[in-house]
Amino acid sequence: MNPVLDALRTQAFVDDTAKIVDQFRNDPDRLSRMSLEVAGLYIDVSKQSWTKSSFDRSIEVFEQSGLSEAREKMWTGQTINVSEGRAVLHVALRDSDAENLRLRGAEITADVKTARDAMKAYADGIRSGAITGSSGKAFRTIVHIGIGGSDLGPRLVYQALTPLTPQIDVRFVANVDGSELALALAGLDPAETLVIAVSKTFTTQETLANFLAAREWLVAALGVEAAQSHMAAVSAAPDKTGAYGIAADRVFGFKDWVGGRYSLWSAVSLSLVIALGYEVYERLLAGAHEMDQHFLTAPFDRNAPVLLAAAQLYNRIGLNRPSRAVIPYVHRLRRLAAFLQQLEMESNGKRTSPTGEVLPTATCPVVFGDEGTNAQHAFFQMLHQSEDVVPLELIAVENNAEASDDMQKKLLSNVIAQGEAFMVGKSLETSEAECRALGFDAAKTAQIAPQKVCPGNKPSTLVLINELTPETLGALLALYEHKTFAEGIVLGLNSFDQWGVELGKTLASAVLKDFAAEVPAEHDPSTAALIARVKG
Ligand SMILES: O=P(O)(O)OC[C@H]1O[C@](O)(CO)[C@@H](O)[C@@H]1O
Question: Which numbered atom of ligand 1 lies nearest the CA of 201?
């Protein structure tokens, strides 16, 4: 029983038939109350399914959820990730105010500063040419090897901010499917290549397998000793890196109070700091910090992360909508949906409370998406006409210096029109009129018009980024982190562990053993047949 969420569901039930478009007539202040501008982001949730009462009820849910106290606990470094016995302090990585850091105990200040300085020195050395490959050649390419939180954030940020002609290129490798590494190494000169293994635990099968294969590639071309200066590692378990032949002065650490999917602010982004420059990294942190301050101080009904979280809970819990589509109309943010899939679904895709009780409600929707306008020519057909309601998150950039004014206007016209189209839909009357305008006779109109109908009344949120800069990108990603945190608190779960991923890993290592075993372990006939097939 979760009384605050029950109240929300009751309100949603009452408002179930409400038309979004009518709410603007019923409530002249709707747009101003449900939109705000912060850290270079304009956020509009007025096309969500709320009535005035259900919006107010949704905000009350957060006021009654203990979110303020939980936020304080996080910011002051208390052990809120109870099952792993850890604090959650990724926000400290983007807080350059030493006074604040000291509040959390002395060692954090030193840790954060030491890690930043080490990254900066190494990156500046490579960018200036003071640090080179074994043959004295400058590094031209970084092969960033990592998966999950050690890949999705850095890959998203690199694609978002990389210059058109980068001084140093970054190629990302995550999957243990050897094709990804093969494609990443293709055409590279080992003498100009730096391989960085990125893993919080330094135990992840895919990352270690890819790193060993990449090291072999280096050693084959350069020899064991020379290869050393072409390898580096990032980990919260630096003690594990030595076994992989990585020199101690090429290991960059971070602490276990940084969760994997919240780690892009840490040394996990070393590849970016080298390729884009320390200054870009600092600006990314500054943008995220501005959103942190907003989240910390803004009242909940004017708090961007809370507004996005409230829309999601209203859709997921209030109206039982099991999915959410994230559509960045920004080619440089084409990996945003993938990043949010891990951030939100690995954080809040849970079924029990931190004390082990099964939760009384659903939790996280299925998050999916692709870049706009591409998605319009792929799955929008279903989103527009299906009876299923999939709430949308539309993200766009207002000013893009890389695009002509004409193309930018075309792009923005699409994202704005889609929000409207999902809300207003297309009625049978409109469809019939269209058919008649096309010269269809009554029989053909009766056949075709119903097929053109779009039910509409489908909600969307728009996040409009003034210009895609390191600051606004930092703010955008911090926005989603705090949205996810706020939802987790209301749902009554621990957003910072991920016990559910272990089963697949355990079974994978058992199957791997079975491939080599004389007599494989007991499995169901389908699994046994597959193992036998691979064993040949
Ligand atoms: O950085 P690591 O320790 O290699 O882990 C990679 C990813 O694997 C996970 O543990 C899930 O399997 C994620 O939480 C994490 O981001």
Answer: 3
Catalytic residue status for 344: no
Calculate the CA dihedral of residues 132, 136, 137, 142 and round it to 10 degrees. -30
> Domains of the chain: which residue ranges?
3-77+283-424+458-491, 105-276, 499-535
Residue of 498, 499, 503, 506 best suited for mutating to test ligand 1, as the one with most atoms within 8 Å of CB: 498
pLDDT digits (tens, 9 = 90+) for 252-296: 999 999 999 999 999 999 999 999 999 999 999 999 999 999 999
pLDDT tens-digit readout, 114-131? 999 999 999 999 999 999
The rounded Å distance from CA 438 to ligand 1 centre is 56
Closest CA to 218 of 250, 260, 240, 266: 250
| Among the four given CATH numbers 3.40.50.12160, 3.40.50.10490, 3.40.30.10, 3.40.630.30, the one describing domain 3-77+283-424+458-491 | 3.40.50.10490
Maximum alpha-carbon separation in the chain: 81
Cα of 207 from ligand 1 centre, angstroms: 10
For residue 105, what pLDDT is reported? 56
Tell me which fold the domain 105-276 belongs to: Rossmann fold (3.40.50)
What's the complex ipTM? 0.99
Among 473, 476, 402, residue whose Cα is nearest residue 163: 402
377 is catalytic: yes
